[in-house]
Amino acid sequence: xxxxxxxxxxxxxxxxxxxxxxxxxxxxxxxxxxxxxxxxxxxxxxxxxxxxxxxxxxxxxxxxxxxxxxxxxxxxxxxxxxxxxxxxxxxxxxxxxxxxxxxxxxxxxxxxxxxxxxxxxxxxxxxxxxxxxxxxxxxxxxxxxxxxxxxxxxxxxxxxxxxxxxxxxxxxxxxxxxxxxxxxxxxxxxxxxxxxxxxxxxxxxxxxxxxxxxxxxxxxxxxxxxxxxxxxxxxxxxxxxxxxxxxxxxxxxxxxxxxxxxxxxxxxxxxxxxxxxxxxxxxxxxxxxxxxxxxxxxxxxxxxxxxxxxxxxxxxxxxxxxxxxxxxxxxxxxxxxxxxxxxxxxxxxxxxxxxxxxxxxxxxxxxxxxxxxxxxxxxxxxxxxxx
Length: 387
Known about the structure:
alpha/beta; 11 strands; isomerase activity; 4-stranded mixed beta sheet; 7-stranded parallel beta sheet; Rna Polymerase Sigma Factor, Chain: A; NAD(P)-bd_dom_sf; single chain; Rossmann fold; 1-deoxy-D-xylulose-5-phosphate reductoisomerase activity
C-alpha cells in the first residue's frame, strides 16, 4: 500500500486523484488533505476516506472542520494556514505528495516535502516555474523523484522512458490552442470571462482555464519542461494540436519521434505518477482510432497570444525573471476574473512588469527572495493596472 497526501484536494486535480484512489483496490491510502475554504467538500472527504490529517488555509474553515470532527467523534488532526500545508506535505507516514494547489502557495510545502524525502506528484506549475533550479537541486540531494502530473509532462516522461536522455534532440509540447484558437487581436478586444473559461477539451479550474486561453499555460509548461528534463529552451517546441489526443512528443538525435497518446482525462497521468514505475488497470476510457477522423497540428500564433513568447523570454533570462512573469500573470488573471481589466491587458501587464522589475532578476534565487518579489510584483499590478 502506498500512502499519500493531497495538497489542494477539492480542486480539479485533487478530486480526480480521489477517483484514482477509489479505483486502486486498496493499493492507495489517503493520509492527509488540504483545502482553502471548502468545508462541505472536506467533510464529505473525511466521511469517505477517513484521512488522519486535514489542513485548511482559512482559519475559520478549520474551526468548522474541527467542530464536525468533534461532533462525529472523528480522531483527525485539523490544522490551518501555511504551517498546516507544510505539515501535511511532510508527514512521516506518507510516501508521496500530490501538489495540486494553484499558484505560488505550492512552493513552500513542496520544498518541505522534498526535505522530508517524500516523492512529489507535481501538478503545481508555479513550483518549477519560479524555483526550478532550487527545487531540482533539492530533489537530487534528497534522492526524491519529481513525477509530473500535467498531461504534457507526463507524456514526455513516458516517451523518454527506457531511452538515453543524452539522445534527446527536441521536446514537442502540444497545446489545444484554447477557446480562441485562430482568432486575431481584433476579435479578442471584448472577450468576456465566461467565454475565456470555456475550454474546448479539458475541464479545469478558473485560473488555469484563463491561462489556457492566453497560452500562458503552455508558456509555464515550457519553463517546467526545461527544468524537469534538463532541456535547452531552443530545443523545446510548442505545437497546437486541437484534438488533444497526442499529449506531447520527444524527438531523438536520429530523427525518431516518440509520442504518448491518450484520452483527455487527467486521471491517466495522475495514476501513472502515483504508481510509477508500474502501470495499473484502466481508470478512464480508451481511444477508438476508428472514430478519430484526423489529427492536425499548427504553429502557435505568438503575435496574438504573446504570453507564450514572454514565457520563453523569461525562461531564457532566468534568475528571478520567471517569478516576475508568474506573479504578474497571477495578479492579472485575478483582475480579469473579477472583470477589472480586459482579456488583452493580461499579457501587456506581464510585459510591463518584466521591464519594471528587471533589475531584481540577478538577486539570489532563494525562497525568501522569490516570495518577497512575488508579493511586490502582485502589489504593483493591483495598484497600477486598474485605471
